[in-house]
Amino acid sequence: MLSNMATSLILHKRISTTLAKAKELKKFVEPLVTRAKEDSTHNRRIAFSYLKSKDAIKALFGEVIEKVGTRPGGYTRIIKTGFRLGDNAEMCIIELVDYNELMLKDAQPAKKTTRRSRRSAGAAVEAPAAKATSAPKAEAKTEEPAAPEASAESENEEK
């Protein structure tokens, strides 16, 4: 059963199953993807002994590794979808991580739209007040060095 589910996951990139099966499938598939990172005859034969499908091996060592080959692990994602009506089994979707285009698109704008825009608007309002308070400090600093120079000039005149 795990062999067939792993083959379906590799070929279709996403399958719907029960949560218990998905958790076991994750343990079954992730070592295969790790092994597929190094494309050798030995690794292909070991993967074939698990999957028993030439098409799945071609997809695994070809397009799947192109997308997830740079990851150090965590090649699959389990998303819970609710409960099945017949027996109330907990259902989920298991998918290969880099193939969910919707989540990839949502993740990128979410990083760009942060609270910074609100803070920058608030900081822009506060910035003139901050500049007003920092300006006298700057003037005070410029006045202080001027005072010792004036005293140095007066000492030179006295001598």
UniProtKB/TrEMBL annotation:
Compositional bias annotation for Low complexity = 120-137
Per the record, which residues fall in region Disordered? 107-159
Record carries keyword Nuclease: no
- Could you name the domain of life of the organism this protein comes from? Bacteria
Pfam families membership: Ribosomal_L17 (PF01196)
Question: What Gene3D superfamilies does the record point to?
Answer: Ribosomal protein L17
Q: Which UniProt keywords apply?
A: Ribonucleoprotein, Ribosomal protein
* Ribosomal protein recorded as keyword: yes
Q: Which family does it belong to?
A: Belongs to the bacterial ribosomal protein bL17 family.
Name the UniProt record assigns to this protein: 50S ribosomal protein L17
